[in-house]
Amino acid sequence: LDGKERFMHTSMCEDVCKTKKVKELKTIDANSVTVQDLEILLETTMYHGFPIVSDDQLNIVIGYVSRNDLIRALKCARDKHIDLVNASRVYFTDGLMRSNAGGGPISVSLGKVVNHDPICIEPKTPLAHTIDMFTKLGVSQVLITNRGKLKGIITRKDVLRHIDYLKTTDNGHNLF
Ligand code: ADP
Q: 164 C-alpha to center of ligand 1: Å?
């Protein structure tokens, strides 16, 4: 994906997307997530990042956080705030530490490490355009959305894998 050759194939980004069901996506629900939820997510998955959605059902994308940034931010919050507990709520809006009005556990904001405007494209976007985004914008992943709702994710490697796949099939002629 160096942008030197023009990709000619008619694939659309939904053809590249590995996660055929939205439920398979590991997302972060911004309205209900705790420190422990995030730590478990990091322990049980190896993805390079996670879309942040406003609601588990609606799946409206409100951001994206990379795995490394999330690990660093959680560790930093744990070190800095000794009263942070497993049940502490995590917010992804900007702002500092907040204490719960009801006297429950303190909460923490990790908004600073979130990309609040991740690149989103429609399922029917031609792969050629998607490749342009990867090469020109230098991103490692794009989210697939329909009317703001998360439908999938495509990484740079997914695109490379798809191109390799096309090369091995009859459709492999005239890719570029
Ligand atoms: P890479 O494709 O560079 O190995 P990842 O490890 O992040 O990057 O992704 C591995 C696979 O999982 C890819 O096919 C990608 O589309 C998919 N994927 C990426 N992030 C998520 C996620 N949060 N939930 C579910 N699948 C994901």
A: 17
